[in-house]
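Hey L., structure's done. Input below.
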Amino acid sequence: MAHGTPSSLDEMPEYLRLVRGGRPPSEALIAEMRHHYQAIGGRSPLTAITFEQAAALQQRLGPELPVAVGMRNWKPFISEAIAELRAAGAGRVIGIPLAPQFSTLSVQKYLDAARAAMPDGMRFDAVETFHAHPRLIAAFVERVRAAQPQPDELIVFTAHSLPVKAIERGDRYAAEVAATARAVAEGAGIDRYELAYQSAGRTPEPWIGPALDDLIEQLAGSGTENLLVVPIGFVCDHTEILFDIDMQAAELARDHGVSLRRTESLNTSPALISALEDLVRRMIMK
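Output:
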């Protein structure tokens, strides 16, 4: 299960309405998001990559365990994936939200959507988190090593921001993000790093930080010249990676005399697919 993304710019208003829980988006928000998508080629690769991840997992699991893809905010919806599995004769569904760290505002909504669509007589079991799975950590470590960090390059781990009120209510998301960062740093032999949050929503309420943009400005002011961003809150390329980091954050860094690059996204990394396989097989045994 993943977030979902429109397949064309014309679908943006309806997509944003679903993302906003049925509230219609403003014309300004629609225009802003269309601009972001146009900047990365007109559409996000999230859905296509999710299908590639599913196909890779299917190959590892074999034909006896069918794999379906469902999106929370766009087609194919989670309900459609469950219907597909039922048609294939499945009596039990194992749900894996493709977000490593649990949050009540992201992962829990995937699980709620799946449970709401589950027909009578079908069992649903969910993987709530895999933020510390050794093979996930290995996948991120591989990406860091492939980037060949330079001695003067500061590592910055990033994850999607969340409203502060969610953390104050007991959401464990920030703690799991920090745990993932520590594990990847240890595995990659990184002694010094920063943790930042990105892609905060356009709401007046405070979101958890430090925000990546604010951190870039702070580091530039203290003389840091080179940054390597490692997005540990995401498992594939999409708008928050290709626009928010590769374009928006990189431009801000250049304006402050800082070089910013990032590690390759996991996408169909064999280590990631191996982690997903292990999650499925462990759930089967329960």
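The first strand starts at residue 92 and ends at 95. The first helix runs from residue 12 to 19.

-- N.
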